[in-house]
Amino acid sequence: MKNQLELILKNAETDLEKAQSINDIEEIKLKYLSRKGELNSIKKNLKDLSDEDKRVVGAFANEIAQKLETEVKSKYEEFYKKELDEKLKCEKIDVTLPGKSIPMGKIHPITQTINEITEIFHTLGFTVAPDKNSPEVETEYYHFDGLNFPKDHPARDMQDTFYTTLAPNVILRGQTSGAQVRVMEEMKPPIRIIAPGRVYRNENVNSRKNNFFHQIEGLYVDKNVSFSDLKGILNEFLRLYFGASRPTRFRSSFFPFTEPSVEIDVQCIMCQGKGCRTCSGTGWLEILGAGMVDVNVLKGVGIDPEVYSGFAFGMGVERLAMLKYAIDDIRLFFNNDERFLKQF
Ligand code: PHE
């Protein structure tokens, strides 16, 4: 029996010698050391021996088992370390590598500006007019006639209107003011709306002019609306958009659809009013036209000017964005250069 035990140890040691992996070691453990393994089956035969032999052979069997266990354990550790090293080598992660960035879209600065201005007018009690009241393709009626432009008024050329081939009276709008007429045709006062949108003018493109741009039209009609309401609302808008410290000024002006009419200038941000290329040396940039809705316009939409009055305004979105972010070329908004757009 002692010989048998020694043989088992020898075989087990040869197997260990040949082992290539943790898996092989597991098999050896199973073959020799498990409950159904070879050492245990010998121990089962101990019961047939004399007490003295039981003690001696039993002790020897335990010794062999312990020896084998130690050897198996050290072999196991050796392979474990080796396999772990290999795994680490091929699965190495370099935490200093830069991450892969997921490209994220951004809202265009013009849309951002429109959203910001819309937000401000919300707080002043204005809502956005339905889109159908502010179409980009407009008829001469809403664009000129309904706004009190006489048939042969030079202002019809003044805005360098794009005519279409759809019909002689169908044009691409050059101002959002047509929305005033459409809204007043459909709504009864009190009316307090804004209408943002794109307009088109046949201009030579340069750093200050593009042949399309964006405006936000505003209209407030109710009983007892006066010029001081116009000044109050627009001054509050300027304060909320530019902050209190930006110099602004009202200048008298003319529009066929408002009387009296004004324009608002904002101090040029490029030169702080000293005069530069952007403001043509004046130190100021015009950002909006406004005025009290002309009596003829009210009559045209069936609103009684004896009962109601109102004011309207139209502002240039690109100008407002340029004056806030110190952008000196309007074309930057439309070239879609990522280096520019990313900054907003
Ligand atoms: N529509 C005018 C323009 O484009 C601006 C304006 C709007 C003036 C409303 C008065 C009232 O210049």
Walkthrough of the structure:
With 344 residues, the chain is an alpha+beta fold. The protein has two domains: 2-90; 109-341, BirA Bifunctional Protein, domain 2 (2-Layer Sandwich), CATH 3.30.930.10. The protein contains 13 helices and ten strands. The protein has helices spanning 2-18, 22-33, 38-44, 51-90, 109-123, 140-143, 155-158, 178-186, 227-242, 295-300, 317-325, 332-335, 338-341; strands at residues 127-128, 137-139, 162-163, 170-172, 191-200, 212-222, 248-255, 258-267, 284-293, 309-316. The strands form two sheets. It has a seven-stranded mixed beta sheet, with helices on both faces. Strand 7 (248-255) and strand 8 form a beta hairpin. Helix 1 (2-18) packs antiparallel against helix 2 and helix 2 packs antiparallel against helix 4. The longest helix is centred in the first third of the chain and has 40 residues, at 51-90. The chain is rod-shaped. The model has no long low-confidence stretch (mean pLDDT 92). Bound molecules: phenylalanine (PHE). The site of phenylalanine has 10 residues, from strand 9 and strand 10. Phenylalanine is lined by residues 175, 177, 255, 258, 289-291, 312-314.
- Tally of discrete structural domains: 2
In the CATH scheme, the class of the largest domain would be Alpha Beta
Structural class of the helix and strand makeup? alpha+beta
Overall average pLDDT: 92
Number of E-type strands: 10
First-residue to last-residue Cα separation? 88 Å
Which regions are unreliable across 5 or more consecutive residues at pLDDT < 50?
Answer: none
Helix content percent band: 40-55%
Beta strand %: 15-25%
Main sheet characteristics: 7 strands, mixed
The helix/strand series, from N terminus to C terminus, equals HHHHHEEHHEEHEEHEEEHEHHH
